[in-house]
Amino acid sequence: MTRRVLRLKDVKEATGLSRSSIYALRKRGLFPASVRIGPKAVGWFEDEVLGYLKSRPRVGGDATTKRQ
Fold first, then answer.
1. To 10 degrees, what angle do helices 19-27 and 8-15 make?
2. Rounded CA gap, 66 and 63, in Å?
3. Which of 8, 12, 15, 46 is deepest in the core (most CB within 10 A)?
């Protein structure tokens, strides 16, 4: 199985996070680690980024629930 590597632009689009947020979360161990793909280039494995997104809690609740 071949693992697809996403560049920063693709990770930002997939997650909706900024560059600084991605690196801050990665530093705290809350986002997948990047992999070196060249002397000056890094990327993230797509399956790990998707796993991160799936692990995030959903916002909102039941449409019939009203805020008081």
1. 90
2. 8
3. 15
**Residue 66 pLDDT:** 52
Count up the domains in the chain and report the number: 1
> Tens digit of pLDDT for each residue in 8-67?
999 999 999 999 999 999 999 999 999 999 999 999 999 999 999 999 998 876 555 555
Please tell me whether the overall predicted TM-score, pTM, comes out greater than 0.90 for this model. no
Distance (Å, rounded) from C-alpha 3 to C-alpha 37? 13
Entry field: residues in the chain? 68
Please give the single-letter amino acid code of residue 64: T
Residue 40 vs residues 9, 33, 35, 58: alpha-carbon distances, Å: 15, 16, 11, 35
Residue 62 lies in a domain: no
